[in-house]
Design a protein that fits this description.
By secondary structure, this protein is an all-alpha fold. The protein folds into 2 domains: 200 residues, Clc chloride channel; 198 residues, Clc chloride channel. A 3-stranded mixed β-sheet has the order 1-2-3, with no helix packed on it. Strand 2 and strand 3 form a beta hairpin. Helix 6 runs antiparallel to helix 7. The longest helix is centred in the N-terminal third of the chain and has 51 residues.
């Protein structure tokens, strides 16, 4: 009899939990979907303006100064970023509410003047800020606030990229490597789906590519995939070190943020004179070229790393994940041209492999591959992701990321990202 009462009580608790989070997700996901759609269209709009008005690139110093001033008047002198969001989840802290409008406007300005940055970093910060605001309204405790923030991260990520499952798993896996925040599964999934459908209704489209070539995994192809993984892992370490070094050097030699962003702008404008405008902006067009085109310059991935490291390091806003797609696609296309792997498939493998390396989230990376490139090459993708995860070591784009367990042994290490 007691067992029956216990089962009924537990079932009632779980049902109440589900109903409560579905209701919260409808509100949080709906708001994040609206904001995410507005952000998506704003970035596309200013990008089109920049493409058709090339002189805007030469206004980069003014754009940078506007961003620094915006953060100053918003009281965000310490320049919170994606690391702040990750720390907030793990340490159960709140995200500044003013961060959402600040990073929204700053990222739009960055893309208007041609900074080499993505959108996902801003998406995670916007989502975390919105979720914190709603969490305060609901007066949730610190533990539940962490789930709120993860829901916000998932929701805006899903609205922007149209990949609801990737968005769900990303926020659960990226915070602490080796630990999944399973308690956030239902909240993050519901928020992600609501935001996804909201954004789709408002004209946002999912990122999806058709890769025509299907790779059969033979011993020879396995060796080729391993060689590709090694190349991706090496470049990922260089990319991460470049991002960290760029940030450190700009802050070391230019302590004044206004001078820092102007100095970075001047360097970027010089690079534009030398190499053109192909490496400005987010760079998703480069992924299109790699998947459907016929030729990629072998140095494209290297120049995108340099442009992105300078852009983010000197003070412009955005994210590193979409540039990661550019780098991974061009690298995969180039390397696979020498490995007797179809280069278009190689571009897809490069995207998911490098994505895994820089965020250390293999499950999320595999789901990203399925949602963006289809499941017909799931085994090759899994092989590349697995080896990239191990070979890339403990480097990460997010210094706040914590490695709870070792990548190579069943050992608790609790190690900070390098």
């Amino acid at each position: 009899m007691n067992t029956g009462k216990h089962i009924v009580k537990e079932l009632d608790t779980n049902i109440r939990y589900g109903i409560r989070w579905i209701a919260i997700s409808l509100l949080l996901g709906g708001i994040c979907g609206l904001v995410g759609a507005a952000f998506h269209h704003s970035i596309d709009w200013v990008t089109e303006i920049r493409i058709h008005n090339g002189f805007l690139v030469w206004l980069m110093p003014l754009g940078g100064l506007a961003i620094v001033f915006l953060y100053r008047i918003a009281g965000l002198q310490h320049e919170p970023g994606t690391n702040t969001i990750i720390q907030s989840v793990r340490q159960q802290e709140k995200v500044p509410r003013i961060l959402a409008p600040a990073i929204f406007i700053a990222t739009v300005i960055t893309h208007l003047v041609g900074g080499s940055s993505g959108r996902e970093g801003a998406a995670l910060q916007i989502g975390g800020s919105i979720a914190t605001t709603l969490g305060r309204l609901f007066r949730v405790d610190k533990k539940e606030m962490s789930v709120f923030i993860m829901c916000g991260m998932s929701a805006v990520f899903s609205a922007l990229f149209g990949t609801p499952l990737t968005a769900t798993l990303f926020s659960m896996e990226v915070v602490s490597v080796g630990v999944f925040y399973y308690a956030a599964l239902v909240p993050c999934l519901c928020s992600s789906l609501v935001a996804f459908f909201t954004a789709q209704l408002l004209g946002c489209h999912s990122v999806y590519y058709v890769v025509g070539r299907v790779m059969t995994v033979t011993p020879a192809n396995f060796a080729r995939l391993l060689a590709l993984s090694v190349c991706i892992a090496v470049v990922s370490i260089f990319f991460v070190l470049s991002m960290h070094t760029g940030h450190r050097l700009f802050h070391k030699y230019f302590s004044n943020p206004y001078i820092r962003v102007v100095a970075g702008s001047l360097v970027l404008m010089l690079l534009v004179l030398l190499f053109g405008t192909e490496y400005l902006g987010a760079g998703m067009d480069a992924v299109d070229k790699c998947i459907y085109g016929t030729k990629v310059a072998p140095y494209d991935f290297l120049l995108k790393i340099i442009f992105t490291a300078i852009t983010i390091g000197c003070g412009f806003k955005g994210g590193e994940i979409v540039p990661t797609f550019f780098i991974g696609a061009t690298l995969g296309f180039t390397v696979c041209s020498f490995l007797a792997i179809d280069p278009h498939l190689g571009a897809a493998l490069g995207v998911v492999g490098l994505f895994c390396c820089v965020i250390n989230s293999p499950v999320t990376s595999l789901i990203l591959g399925i949602e963006v490139f289809g499941s017909q090459n799931i085994i090759p993708m899994a092989i590349v992701i697995a080896f990239c995860y191990v070979l890339s070591g403990y480097f990460s784009l997010y210094s706040a990321q914590k490695f709870v367990y070792s990548k190579t042994s069943a050992e608790f290490i609790n190690k900070d990202a390098e």
